[in-house]
Design brief:
By secondary structure, the chain is of the alpha/beta class. The protein is built from 12 helices and 5 strands.
């Protein structure tokens, strides 16, 4: 959505669902409060009343006060317009990067931070192609299927967060990443056959990376160690690790050796039961040829 000042209607909260600050996100609250304070100080230094400033940027007075009070996350275009109106020389617009991170859900942001520090990642998702491997189109299709439905802004927010996590593939030195994917997730055309085809192509591209091992669990396996749910184990340079699985302590992150041993045992058996990386690449190529 774009600012509507040019058509004479000032934006209100009803126009921007999903831009509230999560009160339990301490870092996000602090960032938005700091940005709001800077906006207010510059507006007052310019001698502009909130209503006058709101009219200039296309927002209602009440929404201006909430943004300045740290109650609402300002949209990127709001900061761009405010920078122009207040003559901030790019200083307000520069805050967009920090504000953009606040838009990512806290649990996703925390996960991305852990992934950014890990030297080894072991990942298994029994329900979908893992988020780090999803194309934006595939992720969009998945999010649209959620019920109750997400708003358009929420879908946009989650896709941006998922795409931002992919920087893990660009690190140098690169972490070792192991994925196990379920065959059925590679066959179901979520979002349509064209979306699935591009997703399969993307998996083949990822499988070519030297630090990535991608394995497929065939549906015809008579034994499967992953029926209790997904597994995620992240290992760090100092020898520590953190893991997570819905089958262990209700999906909360764990770092105790006894819990990590269980997760690594299960993951190791899952990998042994799956196709090898080379066999998995051939299998995905065959699926792509059938699509």
């Amino acid at each position: 959505m774009s600012v509507q000042a040019d058509v004479g209607r000032l934006r209100s909260e009803a126009d921007e669902p999903g831009w509230e600050v999560d009160p339990e996100d301490d870092w996000g609250v602090a960032v938005v409060a700091t940005v709001g304070r800077q906006l207010k100080l510059r507006r007052e230094a310019k001698g502009m009343r909130a209503a006058e400033f709101g009219e200039a940027v296309g927002y209602g007075e009440d929404l201006v006060y909430k943004i300045e009070g740290g109650k609402r996350i300002p949209r990127p275009e709001y900061l761009d317009r405010a920078d122009d109106v207040l003559g901030a020389g790019g200083l307000l617009a520069a805050m967009k990067e920090d504000v953009k991170k606040v838009r990512y859900p806290k649990k996703v942001r925390d996960l991305a931070q852990s992934e950014a520090k890990a030297v080894e990642l072991q990942l298994y998702d029994p329900l979908n192609i893992h988020g780090l491997l999803q194309t934006p189109e595939y992720a969009h299709a998945l999010l649209l299927m959620r019920r109750p439905a997400y708003t358009g802004d929420e879908v946009e927010r989650f896709i941006a967060a998922r795409v931002a996590r992919k920087t893990v593939f660009e690190r140098d030195p690169a972490p070792e990443i192991s994925f196990v994917l379920e065959e059925w997730t590679l066959r179901r055309p979520l979002g349509g056959k064209a979306v699935l085809r591009r997703q399969l192509e993307h998996l083949l591209e990822a499988a070519q990376l030297r630090n990535v091992e991608l394995q497929v669990m065939p549906m015809d396996r008579e034994e499967h160690a992953g029926l209790a749910g997904g597994i995620e184990v992240l290992k760090f340079e100092d020898g520590s690790a953190v893991g997570r699985s819905p089958a262990l302590v209700n999906g909360r992150p764990v770092s105790e050796p006894r819990h990590l041993r269980i997760l690594e045992l299960r993951y190791g058996i899952i990998r042994a039961q799956a196709l090898t990386p080379r066999e998995s690449t051939v299998f995905i190529e065959q699926l792509l040829g059938e699509s």
